[in-house]
Design brief:
With 289 residues, this protein is α+β, with helices and mostly antiparallel strands. Helix 3 packs across helix 4 and helix 6 packs across helix 7. The longest helix has 19 residues. The chain starts with a strand and ends with a helix.
Amino acid sequence: MKYIKAPTALTMAPYNQRELKLNGFSVVESCTHTVNNKGAMYLEEHMLLFVKQGVNILKDGKTEFVVRKNEMVFLKKATLVEYHKTGDTDQDNLYISLMFFLKDEFLQDFIKMANIKSVHTEERVRILVKPVNERLLRFFESIEPYFNEPENIDAGLIKIKMLELLYDLAGTDKNLFQQLLQMKQPVRTEIPEVMEKNYTSPVSLTELAYLSGRSLASFKRDFQTIYNMAPSQWIRKKRLDKAKEVLENTSMAVSDVCYTLGFENPAHFSRIFKEHFGYPPSNLRQQKA
């Protein structure tokens, strides 16, 4: 399944979703009539998803989040999630959601502004789908008119609205707000766990270090100790070995295997596959035919 980068690609063709944007965050509105819309997106920033109409089933690895009408979930950046949107059958299969993408810098500025004392913990806060209370519903409604004339909305006003969102979350949902605080200083995670979960994602070394709760230098040092090779070398070998396994045991097309395992494009995938194994991936597909 080919992924898209969010929020970057969401406002481009063929998605053409409406966006409010300011340095530090963006808000993307998804409004469509759909019975069965599936895909995958790589989160470039932390994302708070609010579903106003319909249902969105998100998968992060083996974990599934079912977000229904007037519910929300908060997911951290550098995550590859699969989505399955279905519209409300009583409303002509209408699906509407708001996606709030927040940069680390904006969260940190808010924590300083609100004088919030974050407490470091070794225990990861559990990600939960949460019902949206009346206070937050009114906030989400107040954002929607801005999409009709984004060029006439002052950037300062958008920033105030985003700060209002964070204050509302801080005041109404302790679990979700703890997630926000934890984004500032991620829980330290074992490197093998991070790598096994993310080797097919388009993550950079800096993002892998972030996900493991380490500095880049510490991540590289610890990785070398565990695997006795560089992270990029390990990821390439892991993807190629997995690609060979999938081609030998399934009927997936070469292009589908390419995108599912995070390679740039089929031509690049075929070239490095042949360099590694001595024959192109099409040979395995011909053997299956």
